[in-house]
Amino acid sequence: MSSPKAELQELRSILNPHVGSTGATRFKSRYLLFLFAALLSAMYHCAGRAQYLFPLTTRHEDGTVWYNPDFDWEALKPSTSLQYAPCYDGYQCARLTLPMDYWNGTTDATVNLALIKKPAIVPVDDPQYGGAVIMNPGGPGGHGVKFLLRVGEQVSNLLGPSSDDVEGKYFDLISFDPRGVGLSTPNLACFGKNSILEQVWSIRNWEEGSFGTSDVAFGRLWAMSKAKSGSCASNVKEHDIKRYVTTAYVARDILEIVEKHAEWREKETSDEKLLYWGFSYGTYIGETFAAMYPHRVGRLVLDGVVDPIDNLQIAAFTDLSDTEKTMASFYHSCAEAGYPTCALADPNNITDPTLVRERTLAVIETLRYDPVAVIVPEPEVITSNDLRMLIFLSLYHPVQMFPILAKTLADLEKGDGSGSSQMLRPYHDLTCRATASIDRVFDADAQLAITCSDGDDLTGYNRTQFASFAETLTEISPTIGDIWAALRMYCIHYPLRPQYRYTGPWEASPAYPVLLIGNTMDPVTPAINAYKMAKRMTDSIFLLQDSPGHTSLAAYSKCTTRYVKEYFQRGSLPLANTTCEVEEKPFGLKGDARQIAAHTQHMDIADAFLEYGLGMRLLGSA
Ligand SMILES: *[C@@H]1O[C@H](CO)[C@@H](O)[C@H](O)[C@H]1NC(C)=O
Ligand SMILES: *[C@@H]1O[C@H](CO)[C@@H](O)[C@H](O)[C@H]1NC(C)=O
Ligand SMILES: *[C@@H]1O[C@H](CO)[C@@H](O)[C@H](O)[C@H]1NC(C)=O
Ligand SMILES: *[C@@H]1O[C@H](CO)[C@@H](O)[C@H](O)[C@H]1NC(C)=O
């Protein structure tokens, strides 16, 4: 194979052909660099929609509906203490009233957080009661309530005692829709109640494709982000929720939840500690909490770690330092698995990853000028952009997605788009009832407001500067650099500043050592982030998981799972720099039936994170 640098160049010229390398062309192409960001949010808008893209998502054999839309949240009276009512099946729900403004005394208004609990199977005074673990599905903008309903059972099994541990702890699990998000009120919205327009906007955005799609794409996407972010930030009243949604507020809300939980248990509230498990953007919440309230840290697992300093710039070069490694793992694992396990592997069993790579790039290039027409009762067209977005998502979850991606590529190579048309339909169609906000699992508007107000004021950036930033990011990662950079484009056009945000210092001495987990090939939160963060927090431990994908959930590892369980059960930590192997590879599970069962449970949680917020921080900014 040629040198890595030459390979990057080649990849870049195929994926972004409008980005030239010489003077005149270069100047022109700067404006073409771009792609969008909002698009992916289209599919995450509605529960169930994502099943098209992640066909393995639903594993409820009896076909039960996991979420009962009939529970009447409005009838549940908000309270300044935790007043739980039974809800759904075996869960308890509450609406917790908290101050809108904790710091600046600008308003006496309040927010009502929608909160859900899966109670431990032992009472709170039982010696086996271990406390409440608070979870956040990431995003920002992911709905915690629906998330817990979806994975409560699996997470209880994962954190709870092993079958042979008669003294092990049982935990309450608590999640909530963060302020501005989901069922919490007031709700943060940019498009107001007109959600049909909002969905159509997402589809238009998707159809513009990436900046390399055409010579007009960059300008259109730039203008769309300007319109979207600009209108979201305009006519904002003095005490609008949009001014009070930075992650500092979320960390403070979590502190309140911890204290209200202690109060509910009839315990002393002044010293109650947080038990927390966060992924992706959820690690940023954890870091913020640890920096602001270090003495209140009981247990903190941060998995798929965001660098809080880079995060101020919204989309940083360092985010993508391992992305192309993740992409390369597709070629390698496919070639190694061989045909027909991997549909794109060489039929004569030549195990050369270069062949897989060449075919992948050839399909992308062919589709650019010659999209695949799908002749079915409801016609479809599969474009190169559709395919690139599918690749982007696949990098998050290789175990589930690489085999599907390989099959899709092999089909498209033959001009067969029937499989892809099913997966991509939700991106092209208004498949969810436009008025049924209850179906949503993720709020793109909240994501925009939270991301941009956590970050520095970027409104001084002009179009030329941004184009050159995007170009550099595309050089670092030809596969997703343009997709990632769009995040920043939305914030450049978002002038609204928060009342308060936390910007450091990030060095802290938490009351209990933090466990930070990074993967060797994570496409958006490289392991180096976890390593650096562990250095900033006294006695904290960095654990490396040797797998591709976003967060440790991307691949089942007995070793990682055991460390997480032991950390919550007994507070024990791995040695620094421990590496965990995984039990599975993208094109084949290793191990016995018991491991496969563990894998299945694990994958359920991973699917839900993907659907409800994991990584959505970059996917949905419009
Ligand atoms: C709000 O209060 C914080 C903390 O006291 C302060 O740092 C910040 O500047 C204030 N914000 C405004 C807009 O006054
Ligand atoms: C390729 O390898 C697979 C798995 O080892 C085997 O099933 C298949 O028959 C082989 N194909 C050829 C053409 O040798
Ligand atoms: C954009 O900003 C850069 C740096 O401040 C400046 O040199 C350049 O002239 C600006 N370009 C335009 C078109 O305003
Ligand atoms: C852990 O790994 C880092 C980076 O590879 C290295 O600098 C450090 O010395 C290692 N620490 C220990 C205790 O092995």
TrEMBL record:
Domain Peptidase S33 tripeptidyl aminopeptidase-like C-terminal: start-end pairs: 478-580
Domain AB hydrolase-1: residue ranges: 132-330
InterPro entries: AB_hydrolase_1 (IPR000073), AB_hydrolase_fold (IPR029058), Pept_S33_TAP-like_C (IPR013595), Serine_prot/Carboxylest_S33 (IPR051601)
Gene3D superfamilies found in the cross-reference section: alpha/beta hydrolase
Record field: transmembrane: 31-54
KW Aminoacyl-tRNA synthetase (keyword) present: no
SUPFAM superfamilies: alpha/beta-Hydrolases (SSF53474)
Pfam families in alphabetical order: Abhydrolase_1, Abhydrolase_4
Single GO MF annotation: hydrolase activity
Record key words, sorted: Hydrolase, Membrane, Transmembrane, Transmembrane helix
Family (UniProt): Belongs to the peptidase S33 family.
Annotated protein name in UniProt: Peptidase S33 tripeptidyl aminopeptidase-like C-terminal domain-containing protein
Species of the source: Aureobasidium subglaciale (strain EXF-2481) (Aureobasidium pullulans var. subglaciale)
UniProt lineage: Eukaryota, Fungi, Dikarya, Ascomycota, Pezizomycotina
